[in-house]
Amino acid sequence: MRLRIPAVAVASLLALSACGGSSSGSSSADGDVEFRVAYLPTANYLTTVKDSGYLEEEGKAVGATVKWVGPLDPVTAYDTVTAGEADASSTGTGYFVNLAGNSDTWMAFALEKYSGKSQGIVANRQSGVSSLKDLYGKKVGIDSPGGTGDYLLNLAFEEAGLDVSKVEKVTLDTSTFATAFASGQVDAIASYDQNLAAAEATEGSKVLITGADMNSYNWSIHIVSRTWAEAHPEQLKAMYDGLVKEAARAKADPSVITDTYQEFGATDELTEQIATFDVPTIEPMDDEVVSDLEKLGQQYVDFGFLDSVPDIASAVVDESK
After folding, report:
1. What is the pLDDT of residues 123-154, one digit of tens each?
2. Which CATH number does the domain housing residue 142 bear?
3. pLDDT at position 114 over 50
4. 157 lies in which domain range?
5. Contact 155, 215 (CB under 8 A)
6. How many CB atoms lie within 10 A of CB 49?
7. Residues forming beta bridges with residue 188, ordered by sequence position
8. Quick check: 256 and 54 in contact, CB under 8 A?
């Protein structure tokens, strides 16, 4: 569902964007417009839709074909699009807000929205932590400075009237979260998806707060090269419609999500925990969503992640119109 790019990757991505950018899309052998998707090894809808064929189905009516590139880790996926070798991918709303303020290469065309139960802060048994305030003087694992975990930690402490500077943040590689949590290398983690599920499933762990308990605007978002979007508006609308159908498929059968996690290596125990998370919806990038992302941008400014709120409205395309 929701992988995030580390903040340190921003410079390299923007450098690539400045050097060129995605083409307006190659043509397939029969002359149709090609939509090249750099998909991620996680169960967001731009990945799961690969199995349902809904993008191909919707695209056929408007002369579009789909090419799947991946699965790619987030940094490689975005490098692939900015290098002109793919047209679309997925990220988190926080990273998109960062992109919107630093590059005009991207446009968001669909929001993947969920309650926030799949994100949160969890303490391990050996920490003795039972509340957010107990984290004072403790080590909390995050994915990257300014990333999802850092955002959740800052937001939780702000809303609780606590001082986040009294917490020691420890940046962890995605693959080391579970080990660091279970071994006591950190006292708690602020994370999402598989890492959160693994922590929640650890014996004696304590869920301190989830994104559903906060005024969080941290969701998944699907983005496309601006060049491709402007050249192929009818085809992009078809791709959006395909994602809407995919969300309806997952709502009717949530195993669409859990089966994909298992394909990417999740254990039965982890999958059982992931199954407790809510099923996302696909929403258009309308005025309400733009307003929410502007609020997220202001939170990022308040937390020192950004200097100013970017012009979100200029970086989205509303496919509900």
Report:
1. 999 999 999 999 999 999 998 898 899 999 99
2. 3.40.190.10
3. yes
4. 119-213
5. yes
6. 27
7. 123, 140
8. no
